[in-house]
User: Fold this.
Amino acid sequence: MDNMKIYEAGKTVPAEAKKTIGAGRLKGVTEINPMWRIRKLTEMFGPCGIGWYYTVEREWLEPTDTGEVAAFVRIHLYIKPEEQDEWSKPIVGVGGSAFVANEKNGPRMSDEAYKMAQTDALSVACKNLGIGATVYWEKVRPSMARGAAILLRPQRLRRLKTILRRSNTSVRIVASLLPHLRRRRAGFCRQLSAGKWPVTRTSTASPVARTAAKKPGPRRSKVWRDLIRA
Assistant:
């Protein structure tokens, strides 16, 4: 069997099966309709119980210090492609959901926590097969896109710290502009090659960034060149 056959058959998610979350901490993240995964498994392997099935291996609760409780489910997914007479090895999926959540009017218990966790676990197992891969491949957390949290490898972080220390550049200015640098690296390189201080869009830049953008100078230009190379 071609190693990429299952992955290629299930990777693309149609537009009608995708929905963008509009609020909350996951705002902007693309959600896949759970029924699309079941349909895709059925298309690829046959009806549930004949071409694919899963077993619930464990269900458990995890309390937190805040009084909230999360429900978790671990499943094993099994598939039987047409060209095979035997069932696959177990494809593990672990999913979770809130069982008790602290809300404005007090704690709220969900009677569908295990069901939602089971659906989540199936999505994780399907992801191991490449089902819905295009969505996961392109997925970027909104907070990362806005620059609320930037993760750097330790080596790169040390290099950036060294550059800042040698140039005596304000950490606030660089921290404010770094997300824009990452998104618009090519444009910043062109501006720097022309001897200009990088300018960010005022609609997305912080006040610190807007102030810094108005201060051109050879020293700051050199700092930006070093940051880009880092």
